[in-house]
């Protein structure tokens, strides 16, 4: 066990990140010395040299663990030595650690999402409609398919949604329950009809662009549906506001953030941190985060 842990997060931008307080809370609970830093690295190709240099620091043991967020969850794939089975199946990485001198890419987003979305009052058939097809969507879709859900996805960029479908077609996953739909109000209305869970996995509506909304303007929500937005800053997105105004249960992604962070921390330290303490740490620092986490 190292005398001190140097941990951090790779992403761009990172001004909204709550990860430092989550992991500093976990370090304090575990009685471990260390720090959690933010490594703001531009998207590739601009940030490639900086990204490679940071991963080399992890390989040399200067760092003990890294999280990965937008836009690098997929760009780190060719830069690691191996992937865990879940990261390989998902096709995205959010956790990096060293094992026997080899850099391993892992994904804790999928179990983090499942643990948190279960807190919504989900009723009816297991049918979900997913907005977005990026790295977060891959973890969400993987988690849902493995739980037997029927999943429909859409993305503003059709090739991204097709790429997600093609990727899962090469995994040991039943893709007969995965459909791609066009990104248009009419297609979204048809695909979301009958869904009991709508999930936004896009960054649309995230701070600082809080007035943006990924749901087509004027399009009504299906009845008897729950909304889950992976965004956690702001605590109530425009999408969540529209859903609650329609009388629908809505939950933000703060619980998922806490769950995936705790699982990453376990990978790096072997310590199982308290989720409630980590959440309390965030809320003490940002009281507004206490909203919309039923």
Structure overview:
With 294 residues, this protein is an alpha/beta fold. Helix content is 36%, strand content 18%. The chain has helices spanning 19-30, 48-59, 85-90, 109-117, 135-146, 158-169, 185-192, 238-245, 254-269, 275-285; strands at 5-11, 34-40, 65-68, 82-83, 95-99, 102-106, 127-131, 150-154, 178-180, 197-200, 226-229, 250-251. It has a six-stranded mixed sheet, with helices on both faces. Strands 9-8-7-10-11-12 form a six-stranded parallel sheet, sandwiched between helices. β5 and β6 form a beta hairpin. The chain is globular and about 55 Å long. The N and C termini lie far apart (37 Å). 44% of the residues are buried.
Tally of DSSP β-strands: 12
* Percentage of residues in DSSP E strands: 15-25%
Quickly count the helices. Answer: 10
Distance between the termini: 37 Å
Give the SSE string.
EHEHEEHEEHEHEHEHEEHEHH
User: Helical amount among residues, as a percent range?
Assistant: 25-40%
Major β-sheet profile: 6 strands, mixed
How confident is the prediction overall: mean pLDDT?
A: 95
User: Whole-number radius of gyration?
Assistant: 19 Å
Shape: globular
Low-confidence stretches: none
Broad structural category: alpha/beta
* Major β-sheet strand ordering: 2-1-3-5-6-4
Looking at this protein, list some descriptive labels.
10 helices, single chain, 294 residues, alpha/beta, six-stranded parallel beta sheet, six-stranded mixed beta sheet
SSE inventory with pairings:
Elements: E1 5-11, H1 19-30, E2 34-40, H2 48-59, E3 65-68, E4 82-83, H3 85-90, E5 95-99, E6 102-106, H4 109-117, E7 127-131, H5 135-146, E8 150-154, H6 158-169, E9 178-180, H7 185-192, E10 197-200, E11 226-229, H8 238-245, E12 250-251, H9 254-269, H10 275-285
Parallel strand pairs: 1-2, 1-3, 4-6, 7-8, 7-10, 8-9, 10-11, 11-12
Antiparallel strand pairs: 3-5, 5-6
Helix pairs in contact: 1-9, 1-10, 4-5, 4-9
